[in-house]
Amino acid sequence: SKKEEATIPEKIIVGTNAEFPPFEYVDDNKKIDGFDIAMMKEIAKRMDVKIEIKNMEFKSLIGSLESKTINAVAAGMTKDPERTEAVDFSDSYYTSSQVMIVKKDSKLKKMTDLKGKKVGVQEGTTGDKLATGENFGEKQKPVVKGVDVRRFPKGVNAVMDLKNGGVDAVVIDEKPAMEFVKNNKGLKIVRDKAAEEYYCIALPKGNEKLVKEINKQLKAMKEDGTLDKLKAKYIDK
Ligand code: GLN
Predict the structure, then answer these.
(1) What is the Å distance from ligand 1's center to 4 Cα?
(2) Residue 100 pLDDT > 80, yes or no?
(3) How far is CA 187 from CA 67, 138, 162, 164, 183, in A?
(4) DSSP string spanning 30-53?
(5) Considering only CA atoms, which residue is closest to atom 10 of ligand 1?
(6) For tag attachment on the chain, is the N or C end more exposed, with fewer CB atoms within 10 Å?
(7) Which atom of ligand 1 is nearest to the CA of 128?
(8) pTM of the model
(9) Separation of CA 123 and ligand 1 centre (Å)
(10) The ligand 1 atom nearest the CA atom of 129
(11) pLDDT at 1 over 70
(12) Ligand 1 site, CB within 6 A
């Protein structure tokens, strides 16, 4: 019943896709780490509940939340209207936008230059939606049409395909793009006007109590500097 659902779980089971540095990645010791993970651990600690991290494909996260395999998603996930029909979102903890990764000698300059080009994306992401011409947010601009979209399970697969002469560009969130360009020679980032995207924690639909509690902890962590400290440690290193 609705009443049963509206409780704080004893354990936060966080679904993520640890292929999205610096927000989540598998570190040298094969442990899942990153900004989102550290943030969720701190939230769980403050709520005095246990935490477990489950690594899965990005496109499976919302479904896992709906089927209750997990009860939170921290995956650099942008709040958008389609997802909001299936899940509830916390307040935003990070603002991002889409950029293009291209080879250093590429002439592509604008999102609209992608028309007729092969573009790699991570399946099910807002980068996928942008390249597909879906207007995933009120402010999404420009709407890109006529792109030959190639979908990959991980962003890094798309980047490898770009390096190997497959796709002409990769559309992906800015900070992961910066990590991929840093770790792969011969690539550059092209920034064009793209909508602001707000990363939020996705939570089961209808558990207002949980949303409130998570928002309370996020607010406290914003106000006491904890979130800024984590940003400095993981993102703006
Ligand atoms: N922010 C993008 C989205 O929400 C990408 C997230 C990701 O690939 N982990 O779709």
Answers:
(1) 31
(2) yes
(3) 40, 31, 9, 11, 9
(4) S-EESHHHHHHHHHHHHHT-EEEE
(5) 125
(6) N
(7) 10
(8) 0.95
(9) 9
(10) 10
(11) no
(12) 17, 20, 58, 75-78, 122, 125-126, 173, 197
Q: Which atom of ligand 1 is nearest to the CA of 124?
A: 10
CATH number at residue 91: 3.40.190.10
**What is the spatial distance between Cα 234 and Cα 22, in angstroms, rounded to a whole number?**
6
**Beta-carbon count within 10 A of 41 CB:** 17
pLDDT digits (tens, 9 = 90+) for 4-18: 457 899 999 999 999
In a shared domain, residues 183 and 204: no
Amino acid 93 reads Y
CA angle (153 as vertex; 148, 157 as ends), nearest 5: 75
Q: What is the pLDDT of residue 133?
A: 86
Question: Residue 209 and residue 224: Cα distance in Å, rounded?
Answer: 23
- CB–CB of 61/202 below 8 Å? yes
Q: What is the mean pLDDT of residues 21-43?
A: 98
What is the domain count for the chain? 2
Residue appearing with tokens 């919302």:
62
> What is the CA 132 to chain-centroid distance, rounded?
18
What pLDDT, in 10s, does the model give residues 116-144?
A: 999 999 999 999 999 998 876 656 666 78
Residues 87 and 129 occupy one common structural domain:
no
Whether 21 and 59 map to the same domain: the answer is: yes
Domain hosting residue 133, numbered range: 98-190
Share of the chain above pLDDT 70, in %: 95
Domain identity same for 6 and 91? yes
Average confidence (pLDDT) over 30-53? 98
* Other CB atoms within 10 Å distance of the CB of residue 154: 16
